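TL;DR need structure tokens for one chain.
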Amino acid sequence: MGRIILHIDMDAFFAAIEERDNPRFAGKSIDIGADPKGERGRGVVSTANYEARKYGIGSAMPISWAYKANPDAIFLPPDFRRYSASSRNIMAILGKYAKKMQQVSVDEAYLEVTGSKLQVTSYKKAEEIARKIKKEIWEKEKLTCSIGIGPNKLIAKIASDEQKPDGLTIIKPNQVKNFLDPKLASVIPGIGPKSFAALKDIEVETISDLRKIPKEKLVEQFGVHGNQMWAMARGQDERIIEEEREIKSVGKQTTFQHDIKTSGPIVKAAFELLHGVFGELKESGLSGKTLIIVVRYAWFETHTSQETQDEALTLKDAKRLCLKLLLPYLGKERIRLVGVRISGLFN
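>> reply
TL;DR here they are.
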């Protein structure tokens, strides 16, 4: 038989841990992230619990917007040490049930259960495993998760979002087409806002619409990614479970307390971020050849620029390139955020 993949996604993970550890928060709207400072705060929401989502609050929303949406919410700074400890416990639980496991974030993982020591040979057996996982996580961590089960990573991932929170959705191979057809094409990995807007220009909104577009036309408009769109619209996904994920880049960013137009503080902040990035690279025994800078204007328009050199970047090299890449953005418009990232990594 083909593969059976589980995608496990913890429900509003950071906020759920705060509710678990602080019973007085039960039933209240909780936003984890920056300090809203009475609508004057900078930064964004990291996680919002399901009560907060009733007000339209979600991850990556500017914290000032979240405050306007519900000023009575509980706003908390993230406690990553506590979240990481719970994550380690959960991943240890998951590892017992899988032939292969790929942790993709602090609160999310894929499991391949086909051919595991648990002798999973059917979707019925996979469902039993999923229920055991949910039960063990609840008993040991008092947290809920949603699980999607499907023939590949794509279907399992989409299925895990189907019945949140505390959901379990099973999509067998013969159900894939009907499952995907009515969904927006934007649920497919790699179809972000820009790609989705481009698809809508050619009258594509749903996956059913996307499947009607010839592969050649998708490749012509979207390049190599058009091949992936074509395949995934048909529920095809050959991506493997990567048990050890390669670090592809290291980066940091900062949101200024006030939008800045003056060049000096922006450059200083970028250089400080570079010191932090190079510290992490040194600890990991890594070097990189590409510097990427991110600039976000006051109205949230975001730009990136990058440059690659033949040899490993030194901190001095990175500062020189950073200044070069930043110059076109300086002194023209107010800047809200600056970020730096090193990619093209090697040992």
